[in-house]
Amino acid sequence: MTEAAMDERTLVERMRAGDEAAFDRFFEENFPRLYRFALARLNQDADAAEDVVQVTLCKAVAGLRGYRFESALFTWLCTICRHEIAAHHERQGRRPEPVSLVEDSPRVRAALESLAAAGEGDPERQMHRRDVARLVQVTLDALPASYGDALEWKYVHGLSVKEIAERLDLGIKAAESLLTRAREAFRGGFAAVTGTRWSER
Fold this sequence. Notes:
Helices cover about 70% and strands about 0% of the residues.
């Protein structure tokens, strides 16, 4: 069992035992990730995304005893979230719009900044870029929260390794190691999703 899986199991077991600190950590770690997940699938409707994520987390807590560790905790939460997104569209009386992952989304922009800018006027190239953006989002959704945050701080906000270390309460060497693991995890995840390596040009 990986360290991350052991950590999730411990967190869930503590929540099942009624540990308030575990509930706080659960919400703090998962709300931002689920919010980004929902926002991209609700046409950037911030209010709807917030409502959907709140319901998702409440239902997850209520159904926590049914979680069997057969998938990552965040994967399980995304499954619940997708049902809530579908329910939201049904309440609105409209079909869900096709997902269009905007490229100014921080997590997507962080991973996409190395894409070549050439051919922006080419419709076929733009379509390919959107397809890649969707695959990037799938990959980022599956990363541990600390990895996604570190990549965003480094490549979107331009923070130094020292600043990232301070935010994560780590030493500089540990922060460098985490960034390395985050990049490797992203590359590996992207390869698994697409069958190709992510190219950093």
